[in-house]
Amino acid sequence: MRVLSRIGVLICILFGTISAQTQIQSGGFFFNTGTPNYTLHQNEGRRMVETEIRFNKPFDTKPYVYTTVILIDAERKTKMRYAIEPKSVSRDGFVLSAVVWGDTQLNAIGGYWMAEAEVVKLEEVKIEVGSTIELNNVEFDFNKATLRSESFEELDNVVKFLSDNPSVEIELAGHTDNIGDDNYNLKLSQERAESVKNYLSGKGIAGSRLIAKGYGESRPIASNQTEQGRDQNRRVEFTILKK
After folding, report:
1. Are the C-beta atoms of 103 and 78 separated by less than 8 Å?
2. End position of a domain, from candidates 103, 118, 133
3. CA-closest candidate to residue 197, choices 209, 185, 186
4. What pTM was estimated for this model as a whole?
5. CATH code of residue 55
6. Does residue 98 sit in the same domain as residue 142?
7. Same-domain pairing of 84 and 128
8. 127 and 40, same structural domain?
9. H or E segment to which residue 188 belongs
């Protein structure tokens, strides 16, 4: 889980003074015509190549992955049209996807990736009204409000936090990306927030201390134009209402 502001983390990365709370891994990638199923050097339609990248060790929370790209173009007759992005990011790894369109022909594509996760320990969070914390490890079944088992450890940490601070009241906020109907997304986000509330209540936290609120796609924290951005926007947060 992480506090929403990432500015401090990025500054630390730039100046090489990484917080002990920040986990980072990095590596490289390279595709060329010798890669199985490589078609980016051809000249028709949309072509894609993907590979799975596993982290050296699992992150404590789902990281954010950044990429930089080096291209070798087969023919520079037209403006290159390509996209490369991480997909299906988890604590264990991700899928790197490279796509080209139209006349773009790439004999090879390579570069580097960096994965970064800021681990915020709830027991160390300063309790202030209005503070918002994102729960990165809360996952649901696709298009449903059913919690996956990998969410339980994160939610049990919230249970402990609320048990240790019995006067604290929180709002549980559900958010979605912008794929699909606005009203459907609003309903889904509300149901997911209520699923989290029900889990916490089932562990002994009084329902009067919990408000479940769905915001649908109305409060994105990243671009909905990429899969990774949409993944960031599909999230559950809690905000401290009373301390």
Report:
1. yes
2. 118
3. 209
4. 0.72
5. 2.60.40.2080
6. no
7. no
8. no
9. helix 182-202
Neighbours of 162 (CB within 10 A): 22
- 57 to each of 25, 39, 54, 107, 131, how far by Cα in Å? 9, 31, 8, 32, 31
Between the CA of residue 94 and those of 1, 16, 51, 116, what are the distances in Å?
18, 25, 9, 13
pLDDT (tens digit per residue) in 132-173: 988 888 999 988 999 999 899 889 999 999 999 999 999 999
CA distance 172 to 179: 22
**Domains in the chain, number:** 2
Domain boundary, last residue among 84, 118, 152 = 118
Tens digit of pLDDT for each residue in 178-225?
998 999 999 999 999 999 999 999 999 999 999 999 999 999 988 888
Please indicate, yes or no, whether residues 104 and 189 belong to a single structural domain of this protein.
no
